[in-house]
Amino acid sequence: MLYTCAPECIDPRHNHGPRTSAADKTARMARAVSSRTVAAKPVRPVARDARGKAKVVDIHCHYLNPEISAKTTDLRPADYDPTTIFANELTRETNVRQMKDRAPKLIDIDQRIRDMDRMGVDIQAVCPAPYQFFYFTEPDVGAGLARDVNEGIAKLVAAHPDRLAGLGSVPLQNAELAIRELEYATKVLGLRGIEINTNVNGMNLTDPRLGLEKFFAKANELGTVIFMHPLGYTEASRMTNHYFNNVIGNPLDTTVAVSHLIFDGVVARHPKIKFIAAHGGGFIANYWARMDHAWRVRPDCRTVIKRAPSTYLEKFYFDTITFDPEMLKRLIDRFGADHVLLGTDYPYDMGEDDPRGLLAQVKRLSKADRQQIEGLNAMKLLKIKAPR
After folding, report:
1. Using an 8 Å Cβ cutoff, are 60 and 345 in contact?
2. Which residues of 253-282 are buried (b: 16+ CB within 10 A; e: fewer)?
3. What does the alpha-carbon distance between residue 64 and residue 1 come to, in Å, rounded to a whole number?
4. Is residue 212 classed exposed, middle or buried when 0-12, 13-18 and 19+ CB atoms within 10 A define those classes?
5. Residues in CB range of 254: below 8 A, 6 or more apart
6. Do residues 248 and 240 touch, judged by C-beta distance below 8 A?
7. Which residues, in sequence order, are bridge partners of residue 125?
8. Is residue 171 within 8 Å of residue 195, measured between CB atoms?
9. pTM above 0.90, yes or no
10. Which residue, 44, 83, 122, 138, shows the most beta carbons closer than 10 Å to its own?
């Protein structure tokens, strides 16, 4: 999820009150963070099994690069953000107040590691805050910003290799540039995968106008981990109240995106891509039988794929952000403990602050399955080496 306003927002419509310029404020924060010493050593032992191989890995957490925020203030990213466009004043005011508390957690690595220790997380797979996708920009601008985002995350990982792994970004508004950045992020910077939005400027990921088939082909060739994270729903005029464009819109956009990847044959054609669907997979992970029924009874649902849609859904991975142990148990029972990954959505309020506690409430979960979900699955996907 993402807050309505970035820390640097100066839009007079949002009624933030007097504040210093966005560039000054963000630059000040960046200097403060960079001037601090590197993070202290963990205050708790690294969680391992008897053989020393099991770590706790958070697959879903975000980092906001303050220098990029300052650099892109004039682009007015909030004007292109569905969670801002389709939000009432109370939601916007709530998000602005909340951001004052959460911004340091998005930026300050020392604070992040203290919070990891408190939650019992050994490693975070850090990905960009969705506010920094920048798909709305011209392709060359978006490519340059994706490069900045990726190099910023790589720098964080290099400073804390025992606590952080990196997921990068690609400019999906241009397939060729997205391929170039995918190769740079994974081959040159050593990032463990990428994060993408669940649509590109309101277009489905399989929309022919985007021409992303070649991108998915390259991702398949590389065996890429692709973490799919929504930013609200793009047709959300009925979701402005009650924070619905996050509460409903986020899982809905994931559901639409995953459905297109399945029904339009991307998953069938590119089986080596490791797709991760955020927020417990959205609605589709709990209502997959309806699409299987449609595939059986309607010819317009069988124009591409040759098998029931849920057989392709079973190739996806899902984080644990379900907020309920019974829902999480159903997810594990249906898709297998080997396809579920611990996640927090750190540091947002719609995240899970006690992910291990939630998992501990799942009834009749074996120790082996719990260790898979807590970290072994993510270690395998992200190719994190176990300690010897």
Report:
1. yes
2. bbbbbbbbbbbbbbbbebeebbbbbbbbbb
3. 13
4. buried
5. 198, 228, 230, 277, 278, 279, 281, 282, 283, 284
6. no
7. 165
8. no
9. no
10. 83
Find, among 29, 1, 17, 22, the residue nearest to 93 by Cα: 17
Which amino acid appears at position 10 of this protein? I
Whether the Cβ atoms of residue 163 and residue 125 lie closer than 8 Å to each other: no
Write the CB contacts of 66 (distance below 8 Å, at least 6 apart in sequence). Answer: 7, 26, 27, 29, 30, 33, 107
CB under 8 Å, gap of 24 or more: what pairs does 214-219 form?
A: 214/175, 214/176, 214/179, 215/170, 215/172, 215/175, 215/178, 215/179, 215/182, 216/266, 216/269, 216/270, 216/273, 217/269, 217/270, 218/179, 218/182, 218/183, 219/182, 219/270, 219/273
Residue 93 Cα distances to 10, 88, 289, angstroms:
13, 9, 39
DSSP letters for 86-155: T--HHHHHHHHHHHHHHHHHHH-HHHHHHHHHHHT-SEEEEEE-GGG--TTS-HHHHHHHHHHHHHHHHH
Q: How many CB atoms lie within 10 A of CB 171?
A: 27
Start-end of H helices in the chain: 22-35, 66-71, 82-85, 89-107, 109-119, 139-159, 175-183, 213-222, 244-247, 249-263, 266-269, 288-297, 309-313, 325-335, 355-360, 367-371, 377-382
Report how far residue 122's alpha carbon sits from residue 48's, in angstroms, rounded to the nearest whole number. 10
Question: 378 with 225: CB under 8 angstroms?
Answer: no
DSSP string spanning 235-276? S-TT--STTHHHHTHHHHHHHHHHHHHHHTTHHHH-TT-EEE
